[in-house]
Amino acid sequence: MRLITVAFPSAAEFLASYEDGTFFIHTRTDAQIGEAVLAELSFPGLPNRSLVRAVVETLRIGVDNEGLTLRIDDKDAATRDFVVRLARGELRIESTTHREHKRFPAALPVSYTIDETPGMVASLVDDLGAGGCFVRAQTPPAVGTKVSLRISAPDGGDICVDGLVAWTRHDEGSGFGVDFEPASGDDGRRLRSLLRKAQESGEVDLERNG
Q1: Rounded to whole angstroms, how far apart are CA atoms 178 and 165?
Q2: Helix (H) or strand (E) holding 114
Q3: What angle is formed at CA 104 by the lines to CA 101 and CA 109, rounded to 5 degrees?
Q4: How many helices (H) and strands (E) in the chain?
Q5: pTM flag (> 0.70)
Q6: Phi and psi at residue 120, to the nearest 5°
Q7: In 48-140, which ranges are continuous DSSP H helix?
Q8: Which residues contact 138 (CB under 8 A, 6 or more apart)?
């Protein structure tokens, strides 16, 4: 699955290109109608780049208006709606951070503890990268809270990492972004190996089945 980076100069420019789950980008990238791609979206005010799965819906060929239209996959509807509502000014993010590592769409079970409080909360990781992840939560912990996560990997094992809540989201796709502390030992190696294999193979959808 090809990765396409799309940087809009402003939220208004993104909204101008967006219509009913699709958006147009000016590009000379070779593509085929129906091709599945991974689009990395960014514009000022968006907390880190957002990755969404999409399909090439139309192509335009011309000197002044060359590009393609991408339809965002319904699997990433929560991310799509978050980006659109943020661009419209309908959402407020408590905190923003600069993300140094790409994150890939995921659907991985996770259990986590908050500030070493006894008891674990079961949830789902929506995206995952070497530097952090996004965890679904109806009531996200406060920014700056320490969390310890046990992520169920696609191969059946677990990856244990610690981190801090970097930002929170309060909407239908509510949850919190985590910045990982440097992961060492077997957990660090397994995380890096998992992401490296996903990127090299093009199988960027990390999903735990069963």
Answers
A1: 5
A2: strand 103-114
A3: 115
A4: 3, 13
A5: no
A6: -115, 145
A7: 77-87
A8: 174
Domains and CATH numbers, the chain: 2-87 (2.40.10.220), 103-207 (2.40.10.220)
Q: Is 36 helix (H, G, I), strand (E, B) or coil?
A: strand
**Is residue 68 a contact partner of residue 19, using CB atoms and an 8 Å limit?**
no
Q: Measured at the alpha carbon of residue 106, what is the angle toward residues 103 and 107, in degrees to the nearest 5?
A: 155
Provide the strand spans (E) within 61-190. 67-72, 103-114, 121-129, 132-136, 146-152, 158-169, 175-180
> What would the two tokens of residue 79 be?
């991310």
Backbone angles phi, psi at 12, to 5 degrees: -65, -40
Whole-Å CA distances, 111 to 119, 154, 196: 10, 15, 23
- What is the full per-residue pLDDT of the chain (210 aa) written as tens digits? 677 888 899 999 999 999 999 999 988 777 889 998 888 888 988 876 777 889 999 988 765 668 899 999 988 887 888 889 889 988 766 554 545 566 777 888 999 999 877 788 999 998 888 888 999 998 899 888 999 999 998 877 899 999 999 888 877 678 898 989 887 788 988 888 888 876 665 544 566 655
- Alpha carbon distance 76, 24 (integer Å): 17
- Both tokens of 35, joined, read 């091709």
